[in-house]
């Protein structure tokens, strides 16, 4: 006799592991506050006292996010942040510096040079950590943008990195473009095929006489068919100030308002708020550069391109806070780069600056350029 089958329970789906947050720094009041801020969030947090300990820790358990207290970079002894970045890999978890309003600018400059991609200001707030964790899980990714608003992908065929060709790649990244670098002209097609995305523009530099000059291999590549190109003369030095307008004309973009050619290194904690129906929700980051036209901010959770934002720029050297307003000219929220070079963050074009404030910014730029 057959019995009636009992209630069939659906098989449980795969359970996603909670993101792992690795906190690097000695136990302190700010670290205890960090633990309290992480407690209500769905994550697994662990703490190690030093960068050396973190280097060993990541060999056994790979974190999703690494928070480093600024004092780990302050004394200049022991293992630097660059070694940890190399251990984590180019596509590894992002590094966030935990700073205080009085954190010296020199420490922020070290962090910027060694791979810091975001900054959290104390006192730490739960909504700031939640935004970063949501971005890691894909829940905080911005909505799809219209084709014209999407960042352009540019292939620099024959450029080994951002500083090649007079720093043309670094300027293009500061304009918000995404860059594929190829050390050789002939390898440019292979980089495009490996990445799997059609570039908007190919910039190549002709080699010396007798060297292979063709970017395109004998077998045509569909991803390169019909892509506009710009060829630079290898016999003449590259002058980015003259090449940049030609590139933007080919891309159909206007990018002169940020005045990227005039930017100088400028590392300060920054808070920014995007106006909304419930008022501005302030988030933090760290500036990497300043120009008379705008501010360049590193953060995993930037405001959307086109948004109006308020800025609070902390000046550790002067002990002052500079308030400004601007419009986000470009933004790159956290997402796997997949071999493409671009910073996480945003470029903010200053808005409504009066002559006194513009003069103050120019003085700051001159002070940074000529210490």
UniProtKB/TrEMBL annotation:
GO terms for molecular function: cyclic-di-GMP binding. Pfam families: PilZ. Coiled coil: none annotated. GO terms for biological process: phosphorelay signal transduction system. Gene3D superfamilies: predicted glycosyltransferase like domains (2.40.10.220). Residues 20-137 form the Response regulatory domain. This is Reductase.
